[in-house]
Design goal:
This protein is an alpha/beta fold and about 100 residues long. It has one domain (about 1-100): Glutaredoxin, CATH 3.40.30. It contains 3 helices and 7 strands. The protein has helices at about 15-25, 40-45, 90-100, and strands spanning about 1-5, 30-35, 50, 55, 70-75, 75-80, 85. Strands 2-1-4 form a 3-stranded mixed β-sheet. The protein has a two-stranded parallel ribbon with strand order 3-5. A two-stranded antiparallel ribbon has the order 6-7. Helix 1 (about 15-25) links the parallel strand 1 (about 1-5) and strand 2 (about 30-35). The protein starts with a strand and ends with a helix.
Length: about 100
């Protein structure tokens, strides 16, 4: 399973995502993890970034709604209770990674 994390330069939420991703991926078959900075709308479009941070699992953003535009901006995530977070929760990441590892 390949992970690509897209962030804007100096993303204030990157550290939180890195911490949560480390916990969520423990014991799962992550073969590569790449962090990429995206600074232009064209690159956001090309990479499929829907705000920073964006997590791509095998090239797919498991947290994107179908109509989310590409964006060089901050991104917020809703948890299972509808509360906003600066990054996906550990549980959300773990679910996305487990699902990807089973396909």
């Amino acid at each position: 399973m390949e992970l690509t994390i897209l962030t804007v330069p100096d993303c204030p939420h990157a550290t939180l995502l890195r911490e949560r991703l480390t916990i969520a991926s423990t014991g799962l078959p992550v073969t590569a993890e790449t962090w990429r900075q995206v600074a232009t709308e064209q690159d956001a479009e090309r990479w499929g970034m829907h705000g920073s941070p964006t997590v791509l699992v095998n090239g797919i953003d498991p947290f994107a709604a179908g109509n989310d535009p590409a964006s060089v901006s901050c991104r917020l995530y809703r948890d299972e209770h509808g509360l906003l977070h600066d990054a996906p929760t550990v549980a959300q990441l773990r679910t996305a990674l487990r699902e990807a590892s089973q396909t």
